[in-house]
């Protein structure tokens, strides 16, 4: 389990580090930072993303897994450039670097980087995940139990994940019932991380 710190776009690196200090003091030993640019603000400030990641990596050190969520906020070329910079700083995974339904773009980014790329929080059915795997081929699938129709559908997506050798890391930002449902699915499958 990791701590996800969002809302990074308006923050300074020092403000993000302060939030992370609280997370580490609470016992989290893996971190994901999210900038919240979104597709409507594509490529808004890639330099700020790198500055934020650099400050956080320096603060947490190399022993803490650190992921970055671009929140669908980059073009393919920016995502690849940024991903290469993050790779040099030992990024754990790069979440949704480009628009969620740009399967060609996701594939280009995933193929260009050595870091695992994740996608899938906006897909709702196993058929959409089938297409995501076939067309985009991300390294990590991230279904959201609340969005995909519950435990039964999420387990079917987990079977696809296992069949195609994808890591399975559920997306979860909803209520505690969603968290409980995700934990039940994760406890019942082999490919969850």
Report on the architecture of this protein:
It is a single chain. This protein is of the alpha/beta class. The protein has 2 domains: about 1-120, TIM Barrel (Alpha-Beta Barrel); about 120-193. The protein has helices at about 15-25, 45-60, 75-85, 105-110, 125-135, 150-165, 175-185; strands at about 5, 30-35, 65-70, 95, 115-120, 140, 165-170. Strands 1-2-3-4-5-6-7 form a 7-stranded parallel β-sheet, with helices on one face.
Give unreliable regions as ranges.
none
Number of helices: 7
Largest sheet: 7 strands, parallel
Strand content: 5-15%
Q: How many β-strand runs?
A: 7
CATH class of the largest domain: Alpha Beta
What is the N-to-C order of secondary-structure elements (H for helix, E for strand)?
Answer: EHEHEHEHEHEHEH
Radius of gyration: 16 Å
Strand order, main sheet: write it out.
Answer: 1-2-3-4-5-6-7
Q: Which structural class should the secondary elements be placed in?
A: alpha/beta
Rounded mean pLDDT score: 91
Write the layout of secondary structure elements.
Layout: E1 3-5, H1 13-25, E2 31-34, H2 46-60, E3 66-69, H3 76-87, E4 94-95, H4 103-112, E5 117-119, H5 126-135, E6 140-141, H6 151-163, E7 167-168, H7 176-187
Parallel strand pairs: 1-2, 2-3, 3-4, 4-5, 5-6, 6-7
Helix pairs in contact: 1-2, 2-3, 3-4
Keywords:
7 strands, 44% helix, 193 residues, TIM Barrel, alpha/beta, globular
Summarize the structure.
With 193 residues, the chain is of the alpha/beta class.
